[in-house]
Design goal:
Number of helices: 4
Largest sheet: 6 strands, antiparallel
Strand order of the largest sheet: 4-5-3-6-7-8
Order of helices and strands: EEEEEHEEHEHH
Number of domains: 1
Strand content: 25-35%
Low-confidence stretches: 1-11
Number of strands: 8
Helix content: 10-25%
Radius of gyration: 21 Å
Shape: globular
Distance between the termini: 51 Å
């Protein structure tokens, strides 16, 4: 009988037959949380170093999880093999605007939250869109938000 790629490989050592298991799940090394200017703890650049010209960042050790979930608008998740850029967006793909005139300025809709659905969830974007969005969070200039939405399409 020939082995296929889907069968488990085994190694015969002194103790007996041991299955050879490859751990392919990526391990999260570091997460950075970004928010609007004024709600931040420190200013950091995208590489994680404290910088006066950086972007508004939340330090997770200083806050509870509920604060992080409501005030975090963008994240950088670094794993062993990839860096993911995540921005809070609605189900239609429109980026979250914390300065919006209408319901955008409120982070949660009570009726949808009660039904188990969130208004906004994190979606992965490329580096250029992420940098436009961080510039919007830092300066509160709507032009950066519009540029991020244009680049996203």
């Amino acid at each position: 009988m020939s082995k296929t790629k889907t069968q488990t490989q085994i190694i015969d050592n002194e103790m007996g037959i041991v299955p050879l298991v490859h751990n392919t799940a990526p391990v999260i090394n570091h997460i950075m949380y970004f928010t609007t200017f004024g709600q931040h703890d420190t200013l950091m650049d995208e590489k994680g170093s404290v910088n006066e010209a950086g972007y508004p960042c939340i330090i997770p050790e200083m806050h509870q999880d509920i604060y992080l979930s409501t005030n975090t608008l963008a994240k950088i998740v670094s794993t062993t093999n990839k860096v993911r850029y995540l921005i809070k967006a609605d189900h239609l793909g429109k980026l979250y605007n914390p300065l919006g005139m209408y319901t955008e300025g409120r982070p949660h809709n009570k009726q949808l939250k009660h039904a188990g659905k969130e208004d906004y969830s994190y979606s992965e974007v490329n580096h250029k869109v992420f940098m436009f969005y961080l510039s919007f969070l830092k300066t509160k200039n709507q032009a950066y938000l519009h540029n991020a939405e244009r680049e996203r399409v």
